[in-house]
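Page 37, top half.
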Amino acid sequence: MTTATRYPVRLIAALMLSAVSGCAWFGDETRRAEMMAVPAMSQTLANAESSLTDAAWPQAKWWESFNIPALNQLITTALADNPNFKAAAARLRQSQAMVDAQAAELYPTVDANVSFSAQRFSANSTQAKLAGENFRQLLINPLVLRYHLDFWGRDQAALEAAVGRSLAVETELADAKLLLATAVAASYFDLVAASEKLLIAENIVADREALLNLHQVRLTTGLVAEAPVLQAKMALQDARQQLDGLRAEVELQKHLLASLAGQGPDWGQHILAVHGVLPKSLALPADLSLRLLAHRPDVTAARLQAQAAAQEIKVAETGFYPDVNLLAFTGLHSVSLTDVLLQGASLAYAVGPSIEFPIFEGGRLRANLSYQEAAYDAAVERYNGSLLHAVQEVADALTRWREIDRRMAAQRQSVIDSVEAKDLAASLHRNGLNDRTDLMLADLEAHQQRLQLTALQGQHFKVAVQVIKALGGGFNDIKNDSQKLSYAH
């Protein structure tokens, strides 16, 4: 066997030896983090006292279920003009561009180059043969081919990691959409509640002013002492402070809605506060605990990030193996500028592999692998944290719904009782069995009860939004719901 024939055999043997011994370079393998299963929710769902029907999950435009055109327009404007949401969309375009860039690594590259140099060799240098000579060189390479031979799957794993991160960013955009839409809806319902409370507060102030005038007239005529007048003044001041606070709350909510919609504060002055339609009962999907992962964009994004981190580990592992590139070029090379294009002797070409062997890296490869493994563990734990947060958010939303539903029922009865007390006071007053003060106090009490009911109604709408948010707000990733995350060393 000649030297020329022995060399490829030795090269192949070296490559095989590197591949076989590569795993030994990785260092001691540590236990990787594991993704947890969905925690048990059956008891929590049973305690919610809601009929688990085959109701559909929230739709993509869930806000339309409240039948409020003003709210629909607000959310549509926010999704189109909110700067933070547009920034998230730009990040998605960036990630998609990175996928295209990484995919290009799987294909050969072809380029061209032209170089010219002029040099004079020193008469006292070591190049004795060319001492004192002027030297010119022209290189024209119209075709230069480079192709990375992905023997160990590095480029493919890097591409899958880039795709996973891009899908995660896309899912994060869906989560940003959900957060923005729910923030707009919650703020709008705060505005509606504040506007309705403002009208009731104005009636309370008017009643307090009338009651103070009545006590002042009675004080002037000597029918009452000064104490009732002072108490009426203090109650009036409290009512006016409450009124001023509600006016400020209405303005602040309009400012917030304008900001969420990506507009200036003046734009918010024209927002109409219209009461919507609230579902009478909470109907949850019967497969909530089974398909929760597929309807939570934050959990899906965390899972995709962990999957991408697993691919990054594979990329880091390939650094321990020889790297092979195929190089080729053809062109014209000459030291004479006149004959480079006229003589066939100027033709030059080459083709062959370029192989790099990682022999001593000072611990860089092991450090990079350890870093990627730690990044994977962190990504998995972030997924586990997102899953726990999602389950807690569902449980909290159901608990708040149950609480507000009971409080609403009790407060409605209080309003009914206050109205009956007012009617009774009015009847007694007509028959001369009580004075006007009792009637006015009964009217004030009815206003106070309606004020509390209005506040609870606003909270009721907000809790409904929280339930929708906890259920994913129309996000659906059923195609990846059963996908498992795996790590192979």
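Page 37, bottom half:
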Amino acid sequence: MKTALKLLFAAIFLWMTVLTIRTSLAASLWSAWDSYAANPWAVATLYDAYFGFITFWVWVAYKESTLWSRVLWLVLILCLGNIAMSLYVLIQLFRLKPEQSLEALFRR
């Protein structure tokens, strides 16, 4: 199961990184903002994403022991979204010792 999760979150990390770079090269976020902000579904999706980011960050804040790392991950998650979130999970998965179960992932 750990290997499957590593593959899943590595795929999310790579897919979102490539997609973000490709999209940024096609159109900047700032140039697309007016048309994006005019679409109510786009705005609702943006709120949904950021509430999800905050929800995920609550777990990160629980896991991290220092204020500095909590703030750093908050900034990364708010700026990079699923790229940062998948990276965080990958780091946590690779930190698990072979004898540790996935339950250890959710503990401090």
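Margin note: The mean pLDDT is 94.
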